[in-house]
Here is the input.
Amino acid sequence: MGAYRAPLADIHFLLNDVFQADEVFAAMPETEEVTKDLVAAILEEAAKIAEQMLSPINQSGDQEACHFDNGIVTTPKGFKEAYEAYSEGGWSGLTGDTNYGGQGMPKVLSAMIEEMFFGANSSFCLYTILTTGATLTLTHHANEELKNYFLPKMFSGQWSGTMCLTEPHAGTDLGIINSKAVPDAQGSYGITGTKIFITAGEHDLTENIIHLVLAKLPDAPAGPRGISLFLVPKFLVEKDGAIGAANNVNCGSIEHKMGIKASATCVMNFENSKGFLVGELNCGLSNLFTMMNYERLSMGLQGNGLAESSYQIAREYAKERLQGRAASGPKLTDKVADPILVHPDVRRMLLTMRANTIAGRALSLYSAFQLDISRFHPEKTVRKRADQLVSLLIPVQKAYCSDRGFESCVLGQQLLGGHGYVAEWGLEQNVRDARISQIYEGANGIQALDLMGRKTVRSDGELWALLVEEMNTFIESQKNNTEMQSHLAKFQDLIQEVQVTTDRVIANAKNNPDEIGAASYAYMDLMGLTLFCFMWQRMLAAAYIARAAGNGNKEYLEGLIKCGVFFMQRLVPKSKSLVAEINAGAESLMALTASEF
Ligand SMILES: Cc1cc2nc3c(=O)[nH]c(=O)nc-3n(C[C@H](O)[C@H](O)[C@H](O)COP(=O)(O)OP(=O)(O)OC[C@H]3O[C@@H](n4cnc5c(N)ncnc54)[C@H](O)[C@@H]3O)c2cc1C
Here is the structure.
């Protein structure tokens, strides 16, 4: 199995040449100390953890998996030690609020670290990002007392967190959950119910686990507007912060699943467990949704990380595996065959992986920058604009990066032939581990519906118009860059294609509500392709500038430019079939009766 290498060259190129991270951070008082050198030093350390600590226990963790015995969950060998090192290094609180022991670093930085950790060991990374998600929710919605009790120990990594939303009968439709919260005499609540599929619900990595649980008061309004959010610790916490009595929170079993086998996916039973209200009553779902953009970004990053890992293995294999001869004549005449890299179809697979993986990384960074600007920028109008962009970008980043990530893992597996199907090289594990990123945190079909329905039709195209402004500003900035002109012409055609399609779906949806769901997935794909194309324009422009100035590694820049040309010539034309699919409308989808299926 190939050892994972953190893609630092790409990350530095994107941060410094493409997005000018220094300038963005310098414009915001809370991030002005996040200099290029500091970012480089932190990324370097994170890369060491990914390569030297997490990657070596990835395959063994998959083979051993989590173990369940009478309510106790044991993680595979090496996970506890890796987690201790992770906590001691201060990684748990990297982006946390500095008032409670966090380090206040921007999301841009933690996004790249998450990508590395997911690429090196997705199961391990899940334990960490669930805690980050829970702390973010508490920071924004919990009262001071709860924050003071819980956040410092979560930021130090001593305690971990979970998100307990799903129930056996309620996944996408959380409005119908059954878990109950009954007020008690102390102003807290007795929480009773069963949650399923809870990542890191029980494990042996931390001394306490802080669950964020959705439940309803007995007299709550029906549907999503009656849901409240509660903090329910595994062990109660004494006044002095010490661990107290067990809180009737029990793990009933863990799932046996396709991938991420070293991540404990738990059935959690709450039996009159003491819970503390987070935020206002009946606002649980909307409070959680304010954090959803961060959570969803992580799932796209899982796709990117595993795609990168798969690309690295496939690239080395393609250079070494000798099969057949090049169509243009033998290349290695002293060998029995040429490396499979000589074959155009092998290059198609490798270049598709590379082109989509770096574009996915760029899109994730672009989205993370908008999240940081919406949080830290001193001007309200700038924050608002970034927030609007985030709401359009995130469903696409989540769904398109996880879909392309899975596709890259499968392409890598295909490139290795039979050796991709067996366990030794790690590709089959990547395929299994990547698959879940398309399902959890809102299945990708739901992301597409969110993009098409709420973000496009309901906003009457306003958010799309904002993105068009961003893209046009960039195009305008490149009008004197001769090397970019043919790429920009294609990009402008694509924007125009999306504009016409968007207008048409908005108009059709007024007559038939099924048009939204019928168009949604292909529209998400079209938007993803357009955003990847935008990212490629930015990467190509930066690479041409660096090459002309003689900056950076020449071979790296040449490879990047050629990959960009491949993307523009061979992947962008896929927009045509997506537009045709969207234009076909709802009729053929809705024509069959249930018994005709
Ligand atoms: C390994 C793993 C880890 C998980 N971790 C957590 C966790 O930590 N915490 C937690 O709370 N949950 C967790 N989940 C649950 C996960 O978020 C849900 O499985 C997911 O949201 C989908 O819900 P569901 O499985 O009930 O599918 P359903 O909601 O039943 O959906 C089934 C299918 O129908 C589609 N569908 C549903 N409704 C609509 C609609 N209105 N319009 C169009 N299509 C629709 C969906 O897109 C999907 O394809 C995890 C799941 C797994 C497998």
Remarks:
- The CA atoms of residues 141 and 287 lie 7 Å apart.
- Residues 163-166, 171-172, 197-199, 257, 265, 436, 439-443, 445-446, 449 surround flavin-adenine dinucleotide (CB under 6 Å).
- The chain has 20 helices and eleven strands.
